[in-house]
Amino acid sequence: MIALKGLTWKHAVVLAVTIACLIYVGPTLKPGIWPHKKINLGLDLQGGMHLILEVKTEKAVESTLERIRNEVRTYFREDGIRLNSIEMSGKTSLTVAVGAPADMDKINALLDKYFPDVEIESTSMESDVQKITLTMKTEWVDQIKSQATDQALETIRNRIDQFGVSEPDIRLEGEKRILVQLPGIKDTERAKELIGKTALLEFKLLDDAHDVGAALKGNVPPGTEILYQAKETSKGEAASEKQPYLVKKQSLLTGASLTDARVQIDTQFNEPYVSIDFDKRGARDFERITGENVKKRLAIVLDNKVYSAPVIQEKIAGGKARITGSFTTQEANDLAIVLRAGALPAPVKIIEERTVGPSLGKDSIHKGLLSLAVSSIIILCFMAFYYKLSGVIADIALVLNILMIAAGLAAFGATLTMPGIAGIILTIGMAVDNNILIYERIREERRLGKTPSACVEAGFDRASVTIMDANVTTLIAALVLFQFGTGPIKGFAVTLSLGVTASMFTALIMSRLIFDHLYITRRMKTLSV
Q1: Residue pLDDT, tens place only, 418-474
Q2: Which of 20, 226, 428, 503 yields a CA-CA distance of 20 to 30 A from 327?
Q3: pLDDT per residue over 260-281, tens digit each?
Q4: 473-479 contacts: CB < 8 A, separation 24 or more?
Q5: By C-alpha distance, which of 345, 356, 352, 303 is closest to 54?
Q6: pLDDT exceeds cutoff 50 at 245
Q7: Residue 374 neighbours by CB under 8 Å, 6+ apart
Q8: DSSP states of 235-300
Q9: Is the pLDDT of residue 54 over 80?
Q10: Distance between CA 527 and CA 389 in Å, rounded?
């Protein structure tokens, strides 16, 4: 045993823990005094927004089927298979019409090579035309839906992280639902728009050979579609309208090739725009597209809205482009965020929305802190009255216990919620219970006529095993709750875990240190317990 005179390792540990706690708790008590974050408050304490989103996974399957359709057309043409038509015949099926007699061996070999997850469901003959029904395998459809939900979760998380929300709670609920909780958010409409934007970026050529006016009246040429400008343009003093564009349906390039998107300022017009960079493949495709379509208009389309449609003056090398559209700085920033985070694989729909106002949050904080203060004061008074000096020592340990929990929340970046406050109150009772076990054991030793130092030694040694057993089992339960629980349960588990760990430290190390100082170092003759 290390000499009791002077500082021991226990003194050093308690001192280091106390200083660390003050450093981490400091910013919460007085923001700015230390270079650390303050304790994050949950949605129920500081207000914010609660959303449940549903991922339209069927759209992801539909998009995959459309891609297969285009690829089948290309591969059939390259292999010399005479293709009459290829149409969607269901949510997961295509009907391919080929000239008879069809070379089924060649078709089967092509499908095995390029489309292993597509199978021939049926074939039939109609007037010298052989129709083949291609169907996506069920396992692949389920995989696409699952991946769409997982990818949507990561995309939304990336967007919110760049949006700057402190400690958001984003997780899956069920097979295709995503829970989003944004504590402290004030601009809820902006947040919803940012989260729900599909952000599918496409580059398409305008159809300048046909009249937009005729298309608006119903005469839309095959292979084209009418899209509108993203923002309304002024038309006179009181009216405004969105400019229509006749755009070719074929997408020449998508945002899948983007590597970066950032806001810059146009020095000529002093307006913000979004500069985008492509990867090597995207840069090569963009150079080819612009080289093949000089003097034509290229529409930059995001979620079926045209942001700009500049004339291609020359071949553009280097893999850079810009999106303009009379943006405000905030609009340009939000657009850059969604482009950097990537497009959602499928649209999402808000099926539940709740907003917790800051006044409700303040009321929750007040009631939670009031309950914490009242319970702490009652326990402190009881311990000091019933166990006298030993009770005061327990009170000191209890204060450090609460300080350690608060420091742990700040150090690990955890979020304090109302269930978390309940967990703190529970651990206060558990911390006192640890001391009661020790003190009752000391009383038993005193009744046997032992000296104060011997009573203290025996009391701590014999109660330590019981305290460790009880607290470790509680800690295991708290960790299980944290691993498998959601929302409020996790908040409770966090503070419970921190509290159990802190209570073992304060009861077995700090309290023991004070008792050793009083009854062994200073050799007090009377036990006040």
Answers
A1: 888 888 888 888 888 888 999 999 999 888 888 888 888 888 988 888 899 888 999
A2: 226
A3: 999 999 888 888 999 999 999 8
A4: 474/430, 474/500, 475/500, 475/501
A5: 352
A6: yes
A7: none
A8: ETTTEEEPPEEEEES--SEEGGGEEEEEEEEETTTTEEEEEEEE-HHHHHHHHHHHHHTTTSBEEE
A9: yes
A10: 9
State the pLDDT confidence band at 239, using cuts at 50, 70 and 90. very low
Distance of CA 248 to the CA centre of its chain: 36
Q: Which helix (H) or strand (E) holds 341?
A: helix 329-341
Q: Which pLDDT score, from 0 to 100, does residue 83 have?
A: 85
Neighbours of 158 (CB within 10 A): 15
* pLDDT value, residue 283: 92
Average pLDDT, the chain: 85
Q: In whole angstroms, how far apart are CA 71 and each of 43, 96, 110, 115?
A: 47, 12, 11, 10
What's the predicted TM-score (pTM) here? 0.68
pLDDT at 169: 81
| Cα–Cα nearest to 325, from 258, 246, 232 | 232
- CA-CA distance, 247 to 227, in Å (whole number)? 7
Between CA 424 and CA 372 the distance in angstroms is 8
DSSP secondary structure string for all residues of 376-392: HHHHHHHHHHHHHHHHH
Tokens representing 114?
A: 């390029």
306 within 8 A of 228, measured Cβ to Cβ: yes
Q: What is the pLDDT of residue 2?
A: 39
Residue 529: both structure tokens together = 């317990």
Domains in the chain: ranges and CATH: 9-47+358-521 (1.20.1640.10), 57-141 (3.30.70), 197-354 (3.30.1360.200)
Of 183, 156, 159, the residue nearest 170 (C-alpha): 156
- Structure token pair of residue 113: 């090579």
Query: Is 2 in a helix, a strand, or coil?
Result: coil
Number of alpha helices (DSSP H) and beta strands (DSSP E) in the chain? 14, 21
Give the neighbor-by-neighbor strand order of the sheet with 83-88: 83-88, 93-99, 129-136, 118-126
The tokens of 239 are what? 């009216």
Q: Is-contact 507 434, C-beta < 8 A?
A: yes
Q: Under a CB-based contact definition with an 8 Å cutoff, are residues 223 and 210 in contact? A: no
Structure tokens at 69: 């359709």
**Position 344 confidence tier, pLDDT thresholds 50, 70, 90:** confident
Tokens in use for 2? 């290390």
The answer to whether 404 and 505 are in contact (CB under 8 A) is yes
